[in-house]
Amino acid sequence: MSAQKRIGKELAEVTTSPPEGIKVSLVDESNVHNWNIVMDGPEGSPYAGGKFQLLLVLPTDYPFKPPKINFKTRIWHPNVTFDEHGSMCIGILKPEAWKPSSKILSVLAATQSLLVEPVPDDAVETSAAEMFKNDKPKFNKTAAEYTKKYA
Fold first, then answer.
1. Is the keyword S-adenosyl-L-methionine in the record (predicted)?
2. What is the 3-state secondary structure (H, E, C) of the chain?
């Protein structure tokens, strides 16, 4: 199956029955490699009430290489860089962990669960990770403030 065909199939799957709290659309109808994702901040997390824009970019050799997913909305989180890139550190997308059988749906689910359960030991934003480990109430308050401000 070609990358285009596989991507088209997965796109149809997530647009017809998207995971709870996630909307997916193409950035540009003529390019199936760039997906615009709007993710609701999960209930019970400091991100609740926020709407986060993400960009999912699928490589031309998908599914043999993992997609890249970035937060376009700024977020205070140990596993997402707090800059204009919003790069995310997530286990499933590491080249050594990625399998061609992995699906974009599972990438979205993993991203969502990372909002509920950060992984401070695999942090890209060390100040957020330190705060998460040492002062969780302060972390939650800061994350909630950023959510109100940016999301």
1. no
2. CCHHHHHHHHHHHHHHCCCCCEEEEEEECCEEEEEEEEEECCCCCCCCCCEEEEEEECCCCCCCCCCEEEECCCCCECCECCCCCCEECCHHHCCCCCCCCCCHHHHHHHHHHHHHCCCHHHCCCHHHHHHHHHCHHHHHHHHHHHHHHHC
> How many distinct structural domains can be found in the chain?
1
- Reported pTM: 0.93
Annotated catalytic residue 89: yes
Residue 42 sits in a domain whose CATH number is 3.10.110.10
Active-site choice (3, 55, 89, 105): 89
User: Tens digit of pLDDT per residue, the chain (151 long)?
Assistant: 788 999 999 999 999 988 899 999 999 999 999 999 999 999 999 999 999 999 999 999 999 999 999 999 999 999 999 999 999 988 899 889 999 999 999 999 999 999 999 999 999 999 999 999 999 999 999 999 999 999 9
